[in-house]
TrEMBL record:
This is HAD family phosphatase. PANTHER family: 2-DEOXYGLUCOSE-6-PHOSPHATE PHOSPHATASE 2 (PTHR18901), PSEUDOURIDINE-5'-PHOSPHATASE (PTHR18901:SF38). InterPro entries: HAD-like_sf (IPR036412), HAD-SF_hydro_IA (IPR006439), HAD_2 (IPR041492), HAD_sf (IPR023214), PGP-like_dom2 (IPR023198). It comes from Chitiniphilus purpureus. SUPFAM superfamilies: HAD-like. It comes from the Bacteria. CDD domains: HAD_BPGM-like (cd07505).
């Protein structure tokens, strides 16, 4: 993942820590799911495009990428804003959902470096949670099928909060369930919506972009943006070991 293509910011471990990295030791970790732990965003984009072809609708890959990290409650408004009130947005949503359920019946591949990162966090005694915009029945299916569900103390899902990402609610709830303050959590995110949510909650955020590069707003936050969960692990290890 080349820096010029993704907007990646190479993190200098020797520079003076920012407020986000210097306040307190890390006491917990919170993970997004889609596109961060599991390679589901790619599957979803393919389902959107296939459903659009089936319904003979004009819908592009760029349109699909615009929904990366978006809560399902926002999708219909997004489609109407793109194509107008007469666009059969709900038909497209329903057709895509059915395709997605079929496409994800089998276990979904984990992202490279995830299992090693989870093991390091467990060895370090740091509790872990999930904060995903996906509804609970689907999220638990995906996590269980991948063998990940038992590794997390708590899971907060998109159908359990009033204000979805980019609002901070889901990360505030996840931190509370883990018994820590938001600024004591490190959050791993792949989407701009998710980064905004975690940042607004006061968490320390590391972005690992998946299908969509960081936006100008994300870059302006000054958070670390790395190419993989392996690089994210190295950064968290540095933060964690910097404290007595």
């Amino acid at each position: 993942m080349a820096g010029g293509q993704t907007g990646r910011v190479d993190f200098d471990f020797t520079r003076t820590p920012t407020l986000m990295t210097a306040a307190l030791p890390i006491r917990a970790a919170i993970f997004d799911m889609d596109g961060l732990m599991l390679d589901t965003e790619r599957i979803a984009a393919e389902c959107w495009l296939a459903a659009a072809v089936e319904l003979e609708l004009g819908f592009t890959h760029v349109d699909a990428l615009g929904m990366v990290g978006m809560h399902s409650s926002k999708v219909l408004d997004y489609l109407v804003a793109l194509y107008g009130a007469h666009f059969p947005g709900q038909r497209l949503i329903d057709a895509t959902h059915q395709r997605y359920l079929r496409a994800t019946e089998m276990p979904i591949p984990c992202k490279a470096g995830l299992l090693e990162l989870l093991q390091w966090l467990e060895d370090a005694g740091l509790p872990k949670g999930v904060a995903t915009s996906t509804r609970r029945n689907i999220a638990e299916h995906h996590l269980a099928a991948a063998g990940l569900l038992p590794r997390f103390a708590h899971t907060v899902c998109g159908d359990e909060i009033d204000h979805p990402k980019p609002a901070p609610d889901i990360y505030l709830k996840a931190a509370d369930l883990l018994g820590v303050k938001p600024h004591e959590c490190v959050v791993f995110e792949d989407s701009n919506f998710g980064v905004a949510a975690a940042h607004a909650a006061g968490c320390r955020v590391i972005m690992v972009p998946d299908l969509k590069p960081p936006s100008a707003e994300t870059l302006a936050m000054g958070i670390p943006i790395v190419a993989s969960l392996t690089e994210a692990q190295a950064l968290v290890m540095h933060w964690h070991l910097s404290y007595p």
